[in-house]
Amino acid sequence: VADIMYEEGNYPIASAWYSKYLSVGDSLPILQRQIVSLYNSRQQKSALELSQRIRKSGPAIPVISEIEASVLEFYGNVNEAAKLYEMLIEIEPRKKSHRVRYLDCLIRLAKEDVGRPILAEILKDLDSLSPDLLMHVSKLQIILNLGDPVITLYEGLKKGFDDPEIQLTYIGLFHSAAQK
Questions:
Q1: In this structure, what DSSP letter does residue 58 have?
Q2: CA distance 152 to 44
Q3: Helix, strand, or coil (residue 159)
Q4: First vs last Cα of the chain: how many Å apart?
Q5: Alpha carbon distances (Å) from 38 to 31, 44, 68, 140, 158
Q6: Residues 126-146: pLDDT tens digits?
């Protein structure tokens, strides 16, 4: 039942079913589904606790550590989130979202000088980014005053033209970029 609810995107019910029958010793894919279900049903504290129990203080685990880092960042533990994103970058170097989230942490930690080269590297490969990531990267360009965020915005708009949220983000960010 939990898997069916998960596949249908009914995360609160999936999470309840997973919670009844899972333990930390169960298989990693099932535990990942439980953590994703908790996170997507806005049970961040429970998702964080389960993620940390599974990972302990060991290396990052794809999906599990990504959610752990996101929740840590949300709760303001940006140092720990940044460390997890660094580990995730090591084990999944092609996943650009890890670099973007790591860059967010660096900005929040006032380490813009460390973040600029990372952003410059991301900007070399805009084609591989999703529309959401392109919009996010353009915000980071505005914050770090690096490159032309309008180009990045336009690439995001082209890829996500059918998405009204992308269109609204484009308009708002375009206005912000124009003011700088």
A1: S
A2: 31
A3: helix
A4: 52
A5: 11, 7, 11, 29, 33
A6: 888 998 999 999 999 999 999
**Whether residue 24 has pLDDT greater than 70:** no
- Please give the residue that has the higher pLDDT: either 20 or 134: 134
126: which residues sit within 8 A by CB, 6+ positions away? 134, 137, 151, 152, 155
Give the span between the Cα atoms of 139 and 103, in whole angstroms.
Answer: 11
pTM of the model: 0.84
Listed in sequence order, the residues at least 6 apart from 97 whose beta carbon sits closer than 8 Å to its beta carbon are: 133
* Contact present, 91 and 105 (Cβ < 8 Å): no
Tokens of 39: 């996170």
Q: Quick one: pLDDT at residue 167?
A: 84
